[in-house]
Amino acid sequence: MRVAVLGTGIMGSAMARNLVAAELRTAVWDRSPSATASLSDAGALVAASPVEAVRDAPVVITMLPTAEVVNSRKGCLWSGLSGSSREVAA
């Protein structure tokens, strides 16, 4: 199974590392490319865009400070753990 993690700050990178360690195909994306460098070394697939990251991923985890970079994607499980309000993240 492919899992996408959008947002690889402190929490997102820890989640991505655990997914890679569990041998799940993990695609990662962050607005700051430097935030994904160590994840690439750990075995994650670094995507150039959020669209690329979620392609073929039935599970998408977002760890973003705002909902503006989250695009809805039908047919997948969306777990938004950014702390955004329900109205913003819905």
| Domains (count) | 1
Content of β-strand? 15-25%
CATH topology name:
Rossmann fold
In CATH, the architecture is 3-Layer(aba) Sandwich
Structural class: alpha/beta
Radius of gyration: 12 Å
> How many extended strands?
5
Average residue pLDDT:
81
Annotate the secondary structure layout.
Layout: E1 2-6, H1 10-21, E2 25-29, H2 37-42, E3 45-46, H3 50-54, E4 59-62, E5 77-80, H4 86-89
Parallel strand pairs: 1-2, 1-4, 2-3, 4-5
At a glance:
The chain is an alpha/beta fold.
What does this structure look like?
The structure is a single chain. This protein has 90 residues and is of the alpha/beta class. It has a single domain, classed as NAD(P)-binding Rossmann-like Domain (Rossmann fold), CATH 3.40.50. Helices cover 30% and strands 22% of the residues. Helix 1 (10-21) links the parallel strand 1 and strand 2 (25-29). The longest helix is centred in the N-terminal third of the chain and has 12 residues, at 10-21. The protein starts with a strand and ends with a helix.
Note the main attributes of this structure:
22% strand; 90 residues; 4 helices; Rossmann fold; globular; alpha/beta
